[in-house]
Write a structure and sequence with these properties.
This protein has 341 residues and is mainly β. It has no helices and 28 strands. Helices cover 0% and strands 61% of the residues. Strand 14 and strand 15 form a beta hairpin.
Length: 341
Amino acid sequence: MCRRVLASARLESWTVARSGIAVDAMSRVHVLYEDEGRLMYGTVDSDRSWTTRELDADGIQGSLAIDASGRVHISYLQGEQRDLRYGLLDAAATWSSQLVASRVAFGTAMAVDAAGRAHITYYVGAALYHSALEGDRWVASTVDANVGFRGLDEARSAIAIDGAGQLHIAYYDGVRRGVRYAHGRDGVFSIESVEPTSAASHGEFLSMNVDRAGGVHLAYVVRVSNVRRTLRYAYRSPAGAYRLTAVESGDRYDYGETAIVADDRGGVHLLYRHTVSADSSLMYEYRDGSGRRLSEQLDGSWPLAGYAPAIALDRNGGVHVVSNRRTRGQLHYTFRYPCRE
């Protein structure tokens, strides 16, 4: 097994609803999280200690990305009206923010292209939108005009940008009760269903990442019935062929949020919350390029462990994970050394 180093930070409340993590070119770890309705930002220092600051006293549903210059780009919702805002921490860690769109529902996600331009996906009403920062103005386009809406868990989106500048967007479609994938640029998107239409609802708690070759990796939950759940891993090749794999499945299991990232060696790192009865755990799975799987429990088992997980890789292949221990009031950080087996 690979060695692990653990560090954790205790928060003042138990209400962390979402978290995000990114690692810059200097291997410095940046964490974004929501604490009792406040948008919080922190960094993990070399000695695994935390430095935190409040970015917005009324901010939720944050997402972050880091550009090649080390600037931190953040999208989030503000206030009871749920206005979508974009924030920037520049190289001097000076914070500034601006309005992107008013009265946004849920499901915001953030990405930055090679030129350092910010891209955000979000739901408004029954539609999914993409906005890009062009100079000093935001240019919005409709990704899907009718995705429906069934609740917070289902209304998630994910966005990534490949080396050629193409946008990749995954989202839950409440009308078709499934996960959809869109790709394109300049406001023009081609949309695909990841799975064939069926009675099972698939696509809840989705996450997505795009590898260097343009392969798309997705993780999400399939509700086969009221009591049976399946955790799905889906891969879309650059040529457009899908391969679907069940990670776990069972009548007495439930699955929550997922996070996924692909490395430069052909491997895939997957996080997910696994619940049995009242106890939940944060599970980690690594799949190498040959199909071998390594699985282990990172946190739990106790009630409400492993919530709001996020994962990122550093330039050496080290794995950085953050999640919420709700019953213990902690935002929990885990570092895992690269596997070289």
